[in-house]
Amino acid sequence: MDEDDLSRLADHAIAWAEGHLGSTAYATRCLAFVEDAYERANGLELFGGDTAHESAVLYEAATRTGPPPRGAFVFYDSVGELLGTRRNWGHVGIALGDGRVIHAWDRVRIDPAEHLEDLTPPPGWDLLRRAGWAPAERFLRGSRPRRWTTDAPAAARHDQATRFGSGT
């Protein structure tokens, strides 16, 4: 994939993500949101970790600490309890290339990347801590074409309920 292809894929993903600004369908589903942005907007299927933290490790995000380019996944450590397990679940958004990140928190929103560490976490969770970023060429590695036929937010809710139960 050349730079023009990567730029086009990022532009499509960001446009899709911006089309969901304000939506609460992805609350607590940050990884599903960023993956859906790339997948649904570009007819692809990505293969990352089950959590944002697992994806950050898989994509070696900690090795990249400078400003992320447009379209990169920006990762944060996010430690809290889910289903009786306290661990680093992670948080992720998409870099807009101007120091801001679009991400799913309480709703889909855009924030300056450095301000995510100031967001009020859910009860029992620690503040976010920047964990690095992954360029599109890294997380697109191994992706394959896919035709998506289901409603993305509904599918994200279903996947979340299947994986973690309906109480999250």
Q: Which sequence of strands runs across the widest sheet?
A: 7-6-5-2-8
Distance between the termini: 37 Å
Can you write the helix and strand succession as a string? HHEHEEEEEEEHEH
How much of the sequence lies in strands comes to 15-25%
Q: Which class of secondary structure composition applies to the elements?
A: alpha+beta
Count of structural domains: 1
Mean pLDDT: 93
Strands, count = 9
Task: Kindly report the CATH topology.
Answer: endopeptidase fold (from Nostoc punctiforme)
What is the CATH top level name?
A: Alpha Beta
Overall, the morphology is globular
Stretches with pLDDT under 50, minimum 5 residues: none
Q: What does the radius of gyration come to?
A: 15 Å
Throw out a few tags for this protein:
9 strands, endopeptidase fold (from Nostoc punctiforme), alpha+beta, two-stranded antiparallel sheet, five-stranded antiparallel β-sheet
What would you say this structure looks like, in words?
GO terms for molecular function: cysteine-type peptidase activity. This is ABC transporter related protein. It holds the Pfam family NLPC_P60. The protein is α+β, with helices and mostly antiparallel strands and 168 residues long. It has one domain (3-164): Alpha-Beta Complex (endopeptidase fold (from Nostoc punctiforme)), CATH 3.90.1720.10. It is 32% helix and 23% strand. The protein has five helices and nine strands. The strands form three sheets. It has a five-stranded antiparallel beta sheet with strand order 7-6-5-2-8. The chain has a two-stranded antiparallel sheet with strand order 1-9. Strand 6 (100-104) and strand 7 (108-112) form a beta hairpin. Helix 1 (3-18) packs across helix 2. The longest helix is centred in the N-terminal third of the chain and has 16 residues, at 3-18.
